[in-house]
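Hey all, quick one. A colleague (J.T.) asked me to put the zinc ion job into the tracker so the inputs and the structure tokens live in one place instead of scattered across chat threads. No bug as far as I know, just bookkeeping. Sequence used:
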Amino acid sequence: MAKATTAYVCQECGGSTAQWAGKCPSCGAWNTLVEEVTGGRGPDAKPRGGKATSLEPLDADVPDAPRISSRIGELDRVAGGGLVPGSAILVGGDPGIGKSTLLLQAAAKLASAGHKTIYFSGEEATAQVRLRAKRLGVASAPVGLAAETSLANILKTLGDKKNAPDLVIIDSIQTLWSDLLESAPGTVAQVRACSQALVRHAKRSGSALILVGHVTKDGQIAGPKVVEHMVDTVLYFEGDGAHQYRILRAVKNRFGPADEIGVFEMRGDGLQEVANPSELFLGDRDTVSSGAAVFAGMEGTRPVLVEMQALVAPSPLGTPRRAVVGWDSSRLAMILAVLEARCGLVLGTHDVYLNVAGGLKITDPAADLAVAAALVSSFSGAALDPGNIFFGEVSLSGGVRPVGHMASRLKEAEKLGFASASVPAKLGSDAKESGLQLEYVAHLSELTDKLMPQGQS
Ligand SMILES: Nc1ncnc2c1ncn2[C@@H]1O[C@H](COP(=O)(O)OP(=O)(O)OP(=O)(O)O)[C@@H](O)[C@H]1O
Ligand SMILES: [Mg+2]
Ligand SMILES: [Zn+2]
């Protein structure tokens, strides 16, 4: 076999050089040269050997992907119903958010249930991991633990198909290095090469593989985007310093719906699953002040109730401030414009602040109506009925449009003791059977007319 050689290949133009340089000699782009392993035979060599693959029809009998339950319900939910043998999951998240904690807990549960589980820690010494295991109360679980960063040693340890473990955890992919490359661990070339080798091993041996990935300042998993393509599932572990809860969010999943979330609470003894997130997000609600509206949202396949909080106040500035936490700022600008142009509210001289309580990030367009209600309530100074929830998408004309999953949104609100709901006028028949008292809103002006004292708008 030809000896592996490496070259620096430009990610822009594909030109290659033998030595690294800041600037690509072919196209002049900066910082685009990445070390890659190249065979000794050159790119134009004819393929040798090879045999024709047999082709199969699409409708051949295939069993459903078998699943191993991680025994952590919220993790299974996000993974699409459990871990799939032979698949690879990338878990990204900010430093200190709890990635190692979550995976150590999952490893311990799986190992205790009789699955062979190996945890490679590249970041912490085994003593540190053991200390964490003790704090989490899982030290007795038969997890195979090693502090290892060499790809070759890891692959050797994993062995072949016969004795392959059921679950392999790599914490983290940025610490691994392959001796085929000269670049340092954590570089694009190393991260890519190591991920590729591990994913290939998982596919071949049938182990489920979980890679931990660091997240850069702008929220990307550090390393090449290609790692996200290589794996079957990409999960982000989110949360903020001010809150104890953490959200595990699927952003890509070949074995289940994306956008699914799992909710955990970080405690001294580890991450606890939160079975009913709405209760958590509505926990410390201040029901008497103006500017708060409860939104019945959907996160993946699960309804989640959150409070949208708005503050509208006269601005001392020529250009009033608009600040948003947890929602899209251009969406807020649109709602404000609709309130001005279609409902006659004069907000142009007011500062507007919008916050999603609890630090949740909402992308569901159905939040429009709840946001509008919160804004109008703050503007008028009158509190909304605390037993009422809102959902509905607002169009540029001010019309309130129906959204998905209306029946489950209402059911969740009913379960949590809400009495009434402001909903789009075109409600599906399944949603009409809800026990809540429904107020149909066909146009946003109906809401503002009701909430604004006469003559103020
Ligand atoms: N004794 C403790 N009591 C309560 N919470 C703790 C305790 N020790 C650690 N934690 C929590 O665990 C978090 C660290 O978790 P963990 O090490 O799993 O994060 P990580 O995402 O793996 O971080 P890194 O990016 O550094 O690897 C801390 O931020 C803290 O919230
Ligand atoms: Mg860690
Ligand atoms: Zn180039």
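Adding what we noticed when we looked at it: The first strand starts at residue 5 and ends at 10. The CA atoms of residues 83 and 190 lie 26 Å apart.
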